[in-house]
Amino acid sequence: MTYAISGECCSDASCVAVCPMNCIHPSPGEPGFGTTDGLYVDPRACIDCGACADICPVDAAKPADRSAPVDVQLNASYYRERPPLDGLDLDTWEPPRFDPWSDGPRRVAVVGAGPAGMYATRELLQRSTAEITLFDRLPVVGGLARYGVAPDHPLTKQIVETFERIAAHPRVHWRPGTSVTVAELEGRYDAVVHASGASESRRLGLPGELTADEIVAWYNGRPGARRPELRGPRAIVVGNGNVALDLARLLPTLPGTGITEVLVLGRRGPEAAAYTASAYREVEGRNEIAFRYGVTPAGWDEHGLTTADGELISAGTLVSAIGFTGRPIEGLPFDETLGIVPNVGGAVIGRPGHFVAGWIKRSARGGIGVNKACAQETVRTLLTVGVPQPA
Is residue 11 within 8 Å of residue 38, measured between CB atoms? Predict the structure, then answer.
């Protein structure tokens, strides 16, 4: 189901910045911006990711099936006489600026082919003449867009097709299945953008717990992922983010697990829940899913979960979905508390020529669309700061 923007639109354009498919118009600088009744979603390009709804300050962006028919019609009619938009827009983007790089193309390495790395690559293609070498330890592009999005969200996964087209651009040299170190990159490239993500699951520290990453990687078919041991009839998911709700929705549907009900536990109150409205709508009213808040897990064994209050909650599976953290990158500074590489606007502190984008830059929060604005900031910083010049 695609999204539509209603007449309550305030045109602050927050949704334009986060839309991963560039399908909300007129955007700032385009004809009609500020003079039309609002902004409109192109139903031909929308991938149903919900980024516009999550950031809209006036709740004007909604799934089409929850929007007024007239709003759905107005959104579609805005694009009726327009050709389908190209998610890359490489040929129609503003001319590149070469203030610090006026002597021609340079070599840039992008490490990580997930959403942040691919958006950074697209920005570099659009705003410079740089030759880009793209590395990823996996054999395909997409990262969490391919292996982290729930399998029952096929529209959202369509963004991977755009990423594949970016990787196939003549100025991109794609190096799949390749791990590289900072030391190996030094001296070979004028700038390096690290977009390695934050794939390390935070844990409760209870023996026998499974992590969200283990299960999500398995049901999405990530190379090297193994089927975890899932037992029913009840599963407990600790966490109140979107990943926790995805697990709660999907665990009862997985064959051979015996799971028929899921209890979602929040260690704090409902006011601290981190899931988005669109994610909650997908589990709202499901009889097999229950929520409890203010519960502190203290122990786990074959009988179930013991809380800090001494209560035993019977269950066969315990899954921690309490977030992710980045891993240190050897050769770069690292903030253990935040799980990020310290940076200013994407420029790594103390390491000229090195930049970061995505979760390793800002910590593990925000969906696919947020990486677009994040990568744009990093590339703007890269082009403004430039690259170290020989003495």
Answer: yes
How many degrees, rounded to 5, is the angle at CA 380 between CA 325 and CA 52?
65
Judge if 107-199+326-385 and 203-211+219-320 fold alike in CATH terms: no
pLDDT along the chain (391 residues), means of 10: 88 87 87 85 91 88 92 93 61 46 70 96 89 96 92 85 90 96 93 92 94 94 94 96 94 93 95 84 90 96 95 97 93 95 97 96 85 90 72 44
Indicate the fold that domain 3-78 takes in CATH.
Alpha-Beta Plaits (3.30.70)
Superfamily classification of domain 107-199+326-385: NAD(P)-binding Rossmann-like Domain (3.40.50.720)
Distance CA 301, CA 308 (A): 14
How is domain 203-211+219-320 classified at the architecture level of CATH? 3-Layer(bba) Sandwich (3.50)
- Residue type for 112, please? G
**In this structure, what token pair is assigned to residue 194?**
């690290």
The amino acid present at 12, given as its one-letter code, is D
Q: What is the per-residue pLDDT for 126?
A: 85
The answer to whether 76 and 49 are in contact (CB under 8 A) is no
Radius of gyration (Cα) for the chain, nearest Å?
22
pTM, entire model:
0.84
SS3 355: strand
